[in-house]
Structure formats: structure tokens, C-alpha cells
Amino acid sequence: MDAALPLLGATNAWITPPVAISVTALIFTLASFWWMQVRRGRLRVETGHVFSGAITSNKIVLDIPLVFHNPAPACLVVADIKLRLSGGAGGENSADHKALPKRMFWIAFHGSVYPESDKHRQYAMPFAVEGRKSVERVIEFQWDTPETQLRDGPYSASVEVLVLPQRWGRRRWRTMCAFPLRTDLWSGSRNALIPRTNDPEFYEAIKDVTG
């Protein structure tokens, strides 16, 4: 009979051990359901050291491979992406100083780092990242009529993503990934859209092999 006695005295006679256990179990069940099925997490974005790039007087094109990982159970939507460039080794009178920082726009995405005559090229459109899954995209960013040719690298590049849904209905951009853009390592024709690297060691190894 003692198990049925109130826990907090006669004034709270309804709070008995069975009631307390039932309420605790209900709260635990609801919290577990929210954590495992409903919870929205924060998207994670990563990149590697290889990308494609071309720079001309009319346009800059950068194809950056990105992996979008959603660690939480609820689905997230990538609504838009921008690439922010800043820095550079040029002085106050350089073209970089006047043109940067600059946000490049997401124009399309590809199936590989080395685009092949518009093969597998799709124009930018929102895509979903399901819960506890990852999505790979080679994102094409463009800058029309650039005021600089980005010759004084390295530069600081950061990927800014607009992820939906957002709390309180606010459309807020978040910086998800940052990396150095080593245009100072570019070899060959700068106006050819070919694979490039941001890794100095890899660049030196390739130079030793290819001469």
C-alpha cells in the first residue's frame, strides 16, 4: 500500500509513484520520438583539394565538389549556395583590393569535377538532403565581367548556404565551409576549364611527374 501513497503530502495526493512513473515514461517516449524522428540538425558541408577553374576577362568559372551531410533525422533543403572570395596577396592598388570580397553565384551543378561539353550539367535548383544521409554535388559558380583575374593568390574562399526550413521564418545564410583558393598554383592555360588543386604538395608531385 505504501507504493500508492502521495509523494508530496496530502495537498498533492494525486502525485503518487505510479502517476510519476507514467508521466516520466511518457516524457521519455515523446523526447525519444522527437530526437530519433523529428529533430532538425545543422547541415555540414565539406570539400576536397581538387576542383575545376577557368579565368578569362569576361568570366570566372569555378566548379567546386561539395559533400552535404545531414546528421539529424529530419530532411533539409539546400535552397541556394554562394561562394565568397576575399584576401589575396596584392597591395592596396591591386585589382583584388577593389574587387574583393565578392560573392559568386551558383549557376549549375555537374556530375564530375571535369565537365565534359555540358554533359550531366543541370541548372541550379534546390535539392533535399534526407536525414542521416549525404549528397555529393559539383557546384558551378560564375562571376561575369570580373574586375580582377585573381593572379595574386592564395585567396580565402567560403561556401555560404541557405538551408530550409529555418526557425522563426527567417532566411539566414550560413558559412558552412572555408578553404584556400590557390590560384597561385594554377598551371597551363588559365582560361581553360580544367582540374586544379589547392594542395601545394600535390601540385609539386604532379610537376615532378609531368615535368
How do the helices and strands line up, and which of them pair or pack?
Blueprint: H1 17-38, E1 44-47, E2 50-55, E3 59-70, E4 76-87, H2 95-99, E5 102-110, E6 122-123, E7 127-129, E8 133-144, E9 155-164, E10 173-181, E11 194-197, H3 200-210
Overview of the molecule:
18% of the residues lie in helices and 39% in strands. It is an alpha+beta fold and 211 residues long. Strands 1, 2, 3, 4, 5, 6, 7, 8, 9, 10 and 11 form an eleven-stranded antiparallel beta sheet that branches. 20% of the residues are buried.
Can you give keywords for this protein?
211 residues; alpha+beta; 3 helices
> What class do helices, strands and sheet pairing give?
alpha+beta
Helix amount, in percent?
10-25%
Quickly count the helices: 3
Total number of β-strand segments?
Answer: 11
Fraction of residues in β-strands:
35-45%
Give average pLDDT, whole number: 87
> Major sheet, described briefly?
11 strands, antiparallel
